[in-house]
Every structure is written in C-alpha cells, then in structure tokens.
Design brief:
Elements (H helix, E strand, L loop, with lengths): L2 H9 L2 E4 L2 E4 L14 H15 L5 E8 L9 E10 L3 E10 L2 E11 L23 H4 L10 E5 L12 E8 L7 H12 L3 H6 L11 E9 L9 E11 L2 E10 L4 E10 L5
Length: about 270
C-alpha cells in the first residue's frame, strides 16, 4: 500500500454511533515533532461533516486548530447538525483526542443554483509537467510516493527572502475514484500546504520557520476534482504580532476558479 492509498484509508471514516466518526494519523499525515499534519485533521473533519450532511454539497468551512494533535492517538469527530433548511444545511464538528478538543469546524452546505458569475483571471504559467516536484527539490528520496504531487512554478522557499507569493500545481498522486466527498476532502488536505510558507518567504533570511496553523477557511465555488491538476496561487498580504495571514485560490486547467482559501498562523523561528 503506497502513501496515497494509506491516505484514502484515513479518509474512509468509520462511525461507531450517530454523529460520531473515527479518524487518526497515517503515512503522509504526520508533521514535525510527531504532531498531526493539520491538513489531515481538517480533511477528516470535512469528510465527517459531509457524511453527516449528505443532501447538499459543501460550499464553505471555517475551522480552528486548538491544540497539537498526536499521531499515535485516534481522533473522534463529533458532528452536530445545527440547521436543515430548504437550501442550506449547517453543522459543527468537534475533533477530540482523549476527550480533549484539538480542532473545531463549522461547515455549510448549499443546494446548487444557477446564478451570476465572475472571477479573477488565473495566473499565467506553463503546464504542470514543465515544473519540478517540490519534494524532489527538498531531497526526499521517496518523493514519487508522496500522496500529493506538488509542482513548483516559483522558486522554492530557501535561505533568502522572496516575495510573499507563490504558485504550485497540485494533483492526487493516485486514483481517488468518483466520490465527490472524497475529492473535496483531498483538496482540503492539500490546501493546508504552503500557506504559512508563503507568509514566511519575505523573512526566510532570518532562519527556519517553526509555524503552526491557527485557523483555516475555504469557500467552494464549484465541486473540486483532484484527479486533475489544480493551480494553487497563494499570497500573504500581512504579517504582524508573530502571526501571518495568507490567501489562496485554486484554478483548474481551464482557468476556472474552483475555491478560495484563507489561513492565519504563528510565525516563529525554529530554535
């Protein structure tokens, strides 16, 4: 079983009872200092929300990372439905380890409607295959087995300051199947990558980043497909008080904006 297949098993949540789903860590889900990768917790919470509210597609989520999760412990996701209207459903998700909350998410679901449309133009760049893999650039020998294929359009963050903006191509490194709930959860998983790194780029000359996500919001403008390349354009408009803010947008190959992202996190130097 490769890393992508292991990630899929971690998103296949089991339910021991009404409104409760079980998750946890796996290959590709562990961050620094044995902490859970925040994107994995967010993806599992998004999957739990979708399983509890299956009638409409999710159109937004707003989440807070409360405490570092531990990789060796299971996570219980408790879902409470707060609204079931004609066109909108809402729910709250609490992620618990050892009965202690580590993450909270509010999700909203909307019956699809036709309506007016406009968007920013997608950034110009060449095809994903023309750009190097980020994990290969970082010297990881197992880069071909990573669950997400990340291609760097801009220079990778290093030891020198760079503008607080970057573009990467993203795609699942395997076949996710046809379940739209899984495609959305995988995009949530991938969206947590590189946002704080973008906010850190102007300060890279000061040392290595020891950051942590504080909150994470996403708005889905169209159902995402993650078996196709998505261009992730990120920029950081501000950093202050030891925190950095980053905005992101994902576009498909046709230039359609699929989703928008915002995240704030702690920015500190690794000791």
């Amino acid at each position: 079983m490769n890393r992508f297949e292991r990630l899929l098993t971690r998103l296949d949540l089991k339910s021991p009872g009404p409104g409760v789903f079980l998750g946890g860590a796996g290959a590709g889900g562990i961050g620094g200092e044995a902490r859970l990768f925040g994107g994995l917790v967010a993806a599992q919470a998004a999957m739990a929300a979708q399983l509890a509210c299956p009638e409409f597609p999710m159109h937004s989520l707003h989440a807070y990372f409360l405490r570092p999760g531990r990789a060796e412990k299971d996570i219980e996701f408790h879902v409470r439905i707060t609204k079931q209207g004609r066109n909108f459903h809402n729910c709250l998700v609490d992620a618990l380890q050892s009965d202690e909350p580590i993450f909270q998410l509010i999700a909203s679901f909307h019956r699809l409607h036709d309506g007016v449309q406009h968007q920013d133009e997608a950034p110009e760049t060449s095809a994903p295959e023309n750009h190097p893999n980020r994990d290969q650039l970082r010297g990881r020998s197992y880069w071909e087995d990573m669950p997400i294929d990340v291609r760097m359009v801009d220079e990778i963050t290093g030891a020198d300051p760079l503008p607080p903006e970057q573009r990467v191509w993203l795609k699942a490194n395997g076949n996710p199947g046809e379940d739209p709930k899984l495609h959305l959860a995988l995009v949530v998983y991938a969206s947590d990558r590189s946002l704080l790194d973008t906010a850190w780029r102007p300060h890279a000359g000061q040392g290595d980043l020891a950051g942590a996500s504080l909150d994470h919001s996403m708005w889905f403008h169209a159902p995402p497909r993650f078996d196709e390349w998505l261009l992730y354009h990120m920029r950081s408009p501000a950093a202050a008080a030891g925190r950095g803010l980053a905005h992101g947008a994902m576009y498909n190959l046709a230039g359609k904006r699929i989703l928008s992202v915002a995240q704030e996190g702690m920015l500190s130097l690794r000791s």
